[in-house]
Amino acid sequence: MSRRTTLALSGAAVMALALTAASLSWTIAAPRAAAFAERDLARRYGLGLAVAGPATLTLLPAPSLRFSGVRLRRGGHDLVASEGLQVQLGLAGLLAGRAEITGLVLERARIAVPDGAGSDWTEPAARLAARVAAGRGRHLRRLVLVDATLSLRDPRTGHPETVTGLNLVANWPRPTAGLDLSAAFTWRGVPATLALSGLRPRELAAGAETPLSAALTWNGAGAGGAEGSAEIEGTLFWARETAGDAARDLPEAAPKETSGAGLRLSGQGRFATPSLPGTLAWLEIAPGPAALAGPVSLDGRFLARPGGVEWPEIRVRVGDSQLEGAGAASLVRGRLAVTGTLAAERIDFSGLLPKAELLPEAGPGGWSRAPLSLDGLTRGDLDLRLSAASARLGPVEAQDVAAGLLVRDGTVEATLGRATVQGGTVKGRAALAAVPAGLDARLQGSADRIDLGGLFADLGWPRWILGRAQGSVALDGTGSSLADLVGRLTGRAAATVEGGEILGLNLADLAQRPETAATALRRGGRTHFERARISLTVSDGVAEIGQGLVRGAALTASLGGRVFLAERRLGAEARIEPQPDGRSSGGFAIEGPWLRPTLRPLAARLPSPSLPAAASAYAP
């Protein structure tokens, strides 16, 4: 073997030994190593480093120091306590004998997140923002958290919160490059993931706009139904405008509460959840009317400010209904306020109706005696205006619908500006307000040219009367339960039906044979009429029939009596007017439950006896 070959092999062996040695972890004096790393942490961020365990040094693949039992401190307070800390160092600085920290890896760390301007994190955050904005010196290129725990306070309520199982990787390779971040964690018992890319910290710190892409998912199907996702593609910047400027920039539909400086985020966003009440409950946001919703998705252009968000353009899907329009939302002390103007080709409100198994049981009189409350619906504010070419509420179809829903603290008001139902027009307003006695309810409405037969068929009711109807109603009452409220109803109602017929009852036949009244409903039959009219005066749950009339070509019948709303019972009499030959036709009583009444014949009215002409002077 030549001398040159021997020297080459010896050099290779020395190099291999050097590389092997550099790749090994070398135990070094922990106090001196900690002091070496602390100088850079103190100079850049004002943080102190305390180490309780041993320290090791590794040179390859990148210089790093590893510590055990670590505390990052500020002002004598521990901000971070970690079982392990790996400090990644820049090679140039290390060769020059100084620490230049380029990355941190914290293992099973417990981190106290700042909760105010005067916290111990204030100065480190300010120093970091200043260095990033100015682009001075080396920056932290990599941050890794392994199974970390964050302790923080909810800024809305001040209640302590904890994020557990946090695994985070953040990479920022160059000051002019974007920051990428991915994280997985558990919050309030719900696992979640976050992915963020494109954020440019230098522009953000300098007050300029930075692009941002973010995606958040949460999956707590077994924890109250909190499940869903949110995606954002837009721009972010830190605004330093005054509160007056912020208020001036808000659109008309937006909440006018603003704060001065703060993050502003705009762009395209998407939100979807199979259970909106479950997601809002996870976020500890009072759902208000959203408690009635199921699967919900939002998609559109948005602008988010501290405490609020506006959607100049938004597409909303609730169940099988898709709506488009504009809206805004704000969150003040945990109370959600939403405004919106939305339109759709078709809306299905059937999902808002309570399921039969969830309805309270009825009392002996037929109405529920369960306590009435608006607490579940008025924990948030809502001002919603809707329009649709067609809509469905349960079995009822409507066209050309314009409606609104207004919810405020303790009140719910629904308005129907117009709707076409079975060829006729319907308008109305219903309002509920919480009062010490329970609920105060008010109902006003009108209908014109409604096809009663088609409406009864849609509702699944017996089609006992046909014709075109018009009417009005104005009722109000107060009660602690539905039974109590119905028993205190007052108001008026009136209805007129033109060109119709009564099914299941032949009044002409009954006029000829009044003794068959008890079986008339069972025999069936039909009564054609030109006009039927009825008016009701309601007081304390009893409707007095003030004017009841059925007029046909062959006969005329009048109706009087009462409808006992609380008991769902009828107590009325129908009188058939004298026939053309002067013979009285008598009448019949309508009694019993209003869905299954019975008929009973009444004695015919005797004609007044005629007096001789000579005796007329003595007549009273």
Automatic annotation (TrEMBL):
All residue ranges annotated as the AsmA domain in the record: 373-544
GO biological process: regulation of protein targeting to membrane
Signal peptide: none
GO cellular component term, pick one: plasma membrane
One Pfam family here: AsmA
Species assigned in the record: Methylobacterium tarhaniae
Protein's UniProt name: AsmA domain-containing protein
UniProt xrefs under InterPro entries: AsmA, AsmA-related, TAT_signal
